[in-house]
Write a structure and sequence with these properties.
- The chain is mainly β and about 120 residues long.
- The protein has one domain.
- The chain has no helices and 8 strands.
- It has strands at about 5-10, 20-25, 35, 50, 55, 65-70, 80-95, 105-115.
- Strands 2, 3, 4, 6, 7 and 8 form a 6-stranded antiparallel sheet that branches.
- A hairpin with a 7-residue loop joins strand 7 and strand 8 (about 105-115).
- The protein is globular.
- The model has no long low-confidence stretch (mean pLDDT about 95).
């Protein structure tokens, strides 16, 4: 069976500026980085612009785009086996979240992982 290609993410009312943000990524045994929940097999490279893809996943709210935070603060997530990465975002929107989830997140069409904060 051929798997259809994921759709590219297009956000409405996005901001055109590039901003600095923080993203929590899985730190694997082979030292590669990957998403926490959605499209978990993806290897996220350093210092390369990545276009967001839409991967609807059963059991998760549909919020297409790269998720990032304005600060290294995500009290609802475990830090075990994960690292904070400094990222740059393009084509982003800001969404309000509960205080326990950091207050608000960014969703972005593109992300550049600049560095890992070990």
């Amino acid at each position: 069976m051929i798997t259809p290609r994921p759709k590219k993410v297009r956000l409405k009312d996005k901001t055109r500026t590039t901003i600095l943000a923080w993203k929590l990524l899985r730190f694997r045994a082979d030292s590669s980085l990957g998403p926490l929940f959605i499209n978990k097999k993806l290897v996220v490279p350093l210092r390369r612009w990545l276009r967001a893809e839409d991967h609807p996943t059963k059991g998760y709210a549909h919020r297409p785009g790269w998720h990032a935070a304005p600060a290294r603060h995500a009290p609802h997530l475990s830090k075990k086996g994960r690292v904070w990465c400094k990222v740059w975002l393009q084509g982003w929107v800001k969404i309000k979240r509960p205080a326990i989830q950091g207050g608000y997140w960014y969703l972005a069409e593109e992300m550049f992982v600049e560095s890992v904060d070990l």
